[in-house]
Amino acid sequence: MRFFKKKKQPESKSNHTKGTLTFPELMKKLTASADFSTVKQSSLSTFYISYYKTLVNPEFVHRDLLPYITEKPLKSLDDIQKHLPLDGMVKTNEIHDIANKVTEGYILIQMNKEDAEGLLVPSLSTENRQISIPETEFSVVGPKEAFVESLDTNLNLIRKRLPIPEFTVKEVRVGKLSKTRVAIIYIEGIADEENVNTAIQRVNDIEYDHVVDSSYINQMISDNENSPFPQLIDTERPDRVASVLSEGKVAIMADGSPHALTGPTTIVEFFSAFEDYFLNWILASVFRLIRLMAVMFSVLSTPLYVAVLTFHYEMIPENLLATLVASRNDIPFPPILEAIVLELSIELLREAGARLPSKVGQTIGIVGGIVIGTAAVQAGLTSNVLLIIVALAALASFTTPVYQMGNTIRLLRFPFLLFAQFLGVLGVAICFAFIISHLLKLTSLGRPYIAPIYPLRTNDLKDALIRMPFSMQNTRPSLLRPEDKARMNKKRAKAKHDIED
């Protein structure tokens, strides 16, 4: 397997790292901002304190910093560093380090204003929202915690579910301007070293100035950026991340993003809701099969309608043929135009509902669908049979548990429609063959995308199209090549002894 490599881009002429600045030039740039403050403190000792007021907690300055350094004479930065009861302080004369730390929320302490050497004291003021329930991956049973925009908080949510020393976090900075903290998370001794190295290398190879969310990283490290299929699972649930880490996967998180990326992944995982593991295995398996059938119906129902009415009337049963003819008796448009107009109308309602405030969006989606659908049928612009099919197809697409795959399903209907118009059912089969061939070539962090179906991994099928009982899932997925394959002792898991025994 080869690691992902990207062609290195030439360095920009403008130096954003401030590595070539002199100290006076750096201070001139910093003081040009209205929220940067430099204060001279003269008591028993004289020193200068500089910081961004919008990044530093003012309570920290007056409560935890000034009382300690003004209570007795301190003649040097070393004296201040020894006297302050704080961790993470750095004394340096490197302009690059001073620039980076100050813009991250550190306080700069100097004995003389012209000195290039300073003591950097951490005091980042963070404003975060409270942990709330998942919105896109809501479940009736199970935990109700979702990630927030703070990377440290998100790591805490995962680590408390995996309180082991093997839980490992590698942190890098991404983005020439944003300097976004990105964490690569895995369990040492379980995750395959090749998967870990691939994820770390791809994140390090990102060349972009501003990375604000994990979705940026998802697009930049995907094996095939031109594929409509998502190649990493985007989740907002810490319990899901903890679960896949225990399988041997790798997670990627970015500061400022309430989502995590997990991989390598397979296409069947996009149709598996994490709530399946909170239900009886029989119910979970039935629900998975229902989702898969719903996806097939969503993609193929409208194209098959167009194909049959355009080329294959003989395939329609006689009893149904009369109903279809009656429904299309006064329709002036061919089936393809009728279907595209309805599909686009559904997409317009979806976009309008998603962009408007939640209460207004729900009203627009329900009322708009009823009014437009009824008016279109009464005006003779579309048949009531096709309206029912398109509405059911749209409803079926919402059963996809992962939002990114749901968007892909929405897109796939249109090429299928075009193929159905030109070649009928044969065109639908050809388009389906193109999709399958694309999926066969697709990979996720270098691993086969449609495994365990191809290449066939019979042991991994226990948690693929259906979910078998936990007692039968005694090994981790072989696709991930985990260093520790065993999840439990199979014999002990099946043995159930009463207390009398």
Report the principal-axis shape.
elongated
Number of domains: 3
The end-to-end span amounts to 51 Å
Mean pLDDT: 86
Count the helices. How many? 15
H and E order: HEEHHEHEEHEEHHEHEEHHHHHHEEH
Which structural class matches the secondary elements?
Answer: alpha+beta
Number of strands: 12
Report the β-strand fraction as a percent range. 5-15%
Portion of residues in helices? Answer: 40-55%
For the CA atoms, what is the radius of gyration?
Answer: 29 Å
- Strand order, sheet with most strands: 1-2-4-5-3
Which ranges are low-confidence, i.e. pLDDT below 50, for 5 or more consecutive residues?
A: 1-19
Give the oligomeric state of the chains in this entry, treating copies of one chain as homo and distinct chains as hetero.
Answer: single chain
* Biggest sheet details: 5 strands, antiparallel
InterPro entries: Spore_Ger (IPR004995), UPF0353/GerABKA_families (IPR050768)
Keywords: Membrane, Transmembrane, Transmembrane helix
Organism: Fictibacillus halophilus
Pfam family, one: GerA
